[in-house]
Design a protein that fits this description.
With 533 residues, the chain is of the alpha/beta class. Helices cover 48% and strands 12% of the residues. The chain has a six-stranded mixed β-sheet with strand order 1-2-13-12-10-11, with helices on both faces. Bound molecules: 6-O-phosphono-beta-D-fructofuranose (F6P). Residues 147-150, 200-202, 205, 208, 262-263, 348, 491, 494 line the site of 6-O-phosphono-beta-D-fructofuranose (F6P). Its EC number is 5.3.1.9. InterPro entries: G6P_Isomerase, G6P_Isomerase_C, Phosphoglucose_isomerase_CS, SIS_dom_sf, SIS_PGI_1, SIS_PGI_2. Belongs to the GPI family.
Length: 533
């Protein structure tokens, strides 16, 4: 019996040159066969280079990897993040059905619910104006100080849900330790009416802590009395001791737990800026949407399971077509940060070359995730997707109902969305090029086509469908991690750079030339030292 991988490799050889045009011509029911609706999301995956046999083999691959077993382990709180000895339970944070979820013999749901209640109470005070700054004025601006998972999720969601935002409260996100980012945000703010959320799972991240300390000094320059900090600084963290050391009253701390990965944390208290921006009702709708996708993922057969299908298509291109990247193309201004958000979610999770057993992987793992709003991308990088030498599977995302009253604009957006997926799929033959009236030379005007894409259509971009969409990608990443036998929930790779940065920082002002690194790093450090002295 050949392994399923061998069967897939043989099948790949058999269909690698088959054109999507042929597949559509052979099967008029291809859309019905290869599309799936879950709640307010339709996935059309018929423009992929697959046949029913491909899908059946990929599903066997998922079965062989025991996706269903690992899925159950994740949902039930097994410590599947084995290198850190942690459960992976972002699903518990949005478990709106409130069934018990056990970690170390304890149901985590009461603690999850208690934090949600305290977020709600706090946000209600700030949003209503009852929470006053140290001079008695209501809060007008909220600044989230955090980076990575403590920034990208809340920032992306606040942007996506802009139509739901309260105009009285402006949200800002300070992530970069580049002083320009700090100055740019602070220069328009009034300390009397600004609330700072210091968001860090560990409360040790250099960028976040440096910014938080600087901002505290900036605040005290005007407020003077450290007692006023309580009205203007709150913390979101798992590290209570470090929060107290910083000088934030634990009464103003919103906690979460080590079983929430940073890049999966927007559902936790890390979502506080979202609650402040759009209100608790909308945040709960976001959680409910994610929960709906969790339930679908947990219970639907693999063949009808949206995250599983997306994951398997990604594996098909990554491991058989040797595609190196995956492009995310939202045709939605409000989803413009989604590609960046998914970069961390996917690349920090599955950017691994050692498997769960500590062995080097024998196959390609996580793809490079990139993208931008599709309509802008059309006028920038689509050329390479259409006619370059690389195969780049694309996810096109759009809402059926537009977020504004500009319906004619939305029709143009939709027409472009459809035109691009069709053009990528069909290409243009020489005959068609001639028939279009194109002049010589013709060759550069011929398109090979056969470029795969998924189309994801949201009924509308609401808190609920957004929650579903994010959870869809989270579970896709999970399934791919299982198939590649990875621990998707640690991130040891980023640690080395952090350690080296700490070592280099004092060397930038060393009294004499630095020789402790390689010639390049020494040369650069000394160049900088000499210039800034
Ligand atoms: O970049 C590494 C990382 O640990 C991410 O995983 C995390 O989201 C980010 O840093 C921020 O970490 P923290 O929330 O602990 O400040």
């Amino acid at each position: 019996m050949p392994t399923v991988q061998a069967a897939l490799a043989a099948h790949f050889q058999a269909i690698r040159d088959t054109h999507l045009r042929e597949l559509f011509a052979q099967d008029p029911a291809r859309f019905e066969r290869f599309s799936l609706r879950v709640g307010g999301i339709l996935l059309d995956y018929s423009k992929n280079r697959i046949t029913p046999e491909t899908l059946s083999l990929l599903l066997q691959l998922a079965e062989t990897a025991d996706v269903a077993g690992w899925r159950e382990r994740m949902f039930s709180g097994d410590k599947i993040n084995h290198t850190e000895g942690r459960a992976v339970l972002h699903t518990a944070l949005r478990n709106v059905s409130n069934t018990p979820v056990m970690v170390d013999g304890e149901d985590v749901m009461p603690a999850v619910n208690a934090v949600l209640v305290s977020m709600e109470a706090f946000a209600a005070q700030v949003r209503s104006g009852a929470w006053r700054g140290y001079t008695g004025k209501p809060i007008t601006d909220v600044v989230n100080i955090g980076i990575g998972g403590s920034d990208l999720g809340p920032q992306m969601v606040c942007q996506a849900l802009k139509p739901y935002q309260s105009p009285q409260l402006r949200a800002h996100f300070m992530s970069n330790v580049d002083g320009a980012h700090v100055v740019e945000i602070l220069e328009n703010l009034d300390p009397e009416t600004t609330l700072f959320i210091v968001a860090s799972k560990t409360f040790t991240t250099q960028e976040t802590m440096s910014n938080a300390h600087y901002v505290r000094e900036w605040f005290l320059q005007q407020a003077r009395d450290p007692a006023h900090i309580a009205k203007h600084f709150v913390a979101v963290s798992t590290n209570r001791a470090a929060v107290m050391d910083f000088g934030i009253d634990p009464a103003n701390m919103f906690g979460f737990w080590d079983w929430v990965g940073g890049r999966y944390s927007l559902w936790s208290a890390i979502g506080l800026p979202i609650v402040l921006a759009v209100g608790m009702e909308n945040f709960r709708a976001l959680l409910a949407g994610a929960h709906a996708m969790d339930q679908h993922f947990r219970s639907a057969p693999l063949a009808e399971n949206m995250p599983v299908i997306l994951a398997l298509l990604g594996v098909w291109y990554n491991n058989y077509f040797a595609a190196e990247s995956q492009v995310i193309l939202p045709y939605d201004h409000y989803l413009r940060s989604l590609p960046m958000y998914l970069q961390q979610a996917d690349m920090e999770s599955n950017g691994k070359s050692v498997d769960r057993d500590g062995n080097p992987v024998s196959q390609s793992t996580g793809p490079i995730i990139w993208g931008a709003t599709g309509i802008n991308g059309q006028h920038a990088f689509y050329q390479l997707i259409h006619q370059g030498t690389k195969l780049i599977p694309a996810d096109f995302i759009i809402s059926v109902t537009p977020p504004t009253a500009l319906h004619a604009h939305h029709d143009i957006l939709m027409a472009n969305f459809l035109a691009q997926t069709e053009a990528l799929m069909r290409g243009r033959t020489l005959e068609e090029t001639v028939a279009s009236g194109a002049s010589e030379p013709l060759a550069p005007k011929v398109f090979a086509g056969n470029h795969p894409s998924n189309a994801l259509l949201l009924d509308a971009l609401t808190p609920h469908t957004l929650g579903m969409l994010i959870a869809l990608y989270e579970h896709k990443i999970f399934v791919q991690g299982v198939i590649w036998n990875l621990n998707s929930y640690d991130q040891w790779g980023v640690e080395l750079g952090k350690q080296l940065a700490k070592q280099i920082l004092p060397e930038l002002h060393a009294a004499s030339a630095v020789h402790s690194h390689d010639a390049s790093t020494n040369g650069l450090i000394n160049h900088y030292r000499e210039q800034v002295q």
